[in-house]
Write the structure tokens for this entry.
Amino acid sequence: MAGPTVGDMTQQGVRWTADQVLALAPDAASRKAGSKLGTAGPWSQTGSSDEGAVWGLCKGSGSKPYQTIVDTGADGGGNGPAYKCSCPSRKFPCKHALGLLLLWSGGAQQVPDGQAPPEWTEQWLAGRRQRAAAKRTAPDGAAATAQADPEAARRRAERRAQRITAGATELEQRLTDLLRGGLAQAERAGYGLWEETAARMVDAQAPGLAARVRELGAIPGSGAGWPVRLLEECALLHLLDQGWLHRAELPEELAATVRSRVGLPTSAEQPAQRDDWLILAQYDAADGHLTTRRIWLYGTATHRTALLLSYGAAGRAPALALPAGLTLDASVSGHPGGTLRAELDEQFGTAQPKDVRPAGVGVGAALAAYGEALTADPWLESWPVTLADVIPARDPDSGSWQLADAEGKTALPLVPQAAATSGLWRLASVSGGAPVTVFGECGHRGFRPLATWTGAAGEVISLC
């Protein structure tokens, strides 16, 4: 479904395109169901306000229509767009919210501008404004607790550190036993060995170690070459164990990275920066227990790249969702250590279009940036880079996909997962054999394309 151009969006105020709306969908099923509701047929009493609220009644299978509301971002609480629907869905946004936003993207004839919200919409919006105001004026809960009893907080931190140390020591012994007995025993032992070890790390209050141990369990069944991959991951896990056991000897920034990697919570300690943040990409990754949403931002004035993480329990999509391709006037604060992770502190209005894009680099510079990032965080799996003037093409020898520079001198292979997604064919279609700019994650397994555009200020097209 084609959406309005950037010029149309500017005239309408803050009307997103259909592609930007569908990029908010928590999964493919929601995207398909929402598309079916993006027509006027099931909707009544639709409207939108100058403050960024959109609402409507959607006829469903029951006697009462579903009351659907979307706050497109003017919440003042730094939580991005928010959704409310009387349907029983546990997804955010649900198919009704997606359908309403698709209808709204079609213009004022479908969803009128400048309307006064009905009572059921205003009640929800008023509650959000009150909670946002209380959040801005209330002291930080964790800080208040620590100030109330700093000695108790110190003792809790010491006890947890002792448990993690015991868990890391036990894990070192298990890795030693594995290497002494030979990697072949990992295939014979099956996944149960690793699951039991991961449970021990959970007991030690080291969820980061537990997650890495679970990943080890899947490697023996991952196909040819698995012993090499298993040895590599064991080495990284051993390095993390040793980093924790000798953290007092490390530089503070690297020690902060180690604490974060083993699973200790970190808070945003760097000063907040207000900027117009371009929303480059958003995608979800699920491990069976948790859904993690990764949202990449680019500061159009600071030229800083930041990563927002949002989580959802099994069966629930993360609550934070931002429209890719638009810019958000907001303040963002970073986490300690060699990480790009940040928190969305407060936003000042709704997301809008802006003709600023990150500058691209060549393949060699992209690899160098990833290598430099690894010196600060050896456990880093990927690093965000923007590749300029590259063409998607198949490797003539292996047949796998890669991004080659316009001269055909250097190329960066795509991660295997990219070939199985519609984003690759969207990228090939946008390119048409001509150079494009591609934003994505560069890692030791290859490059994962997340967004593309042509020219210095072309439309950002999601590849997730």
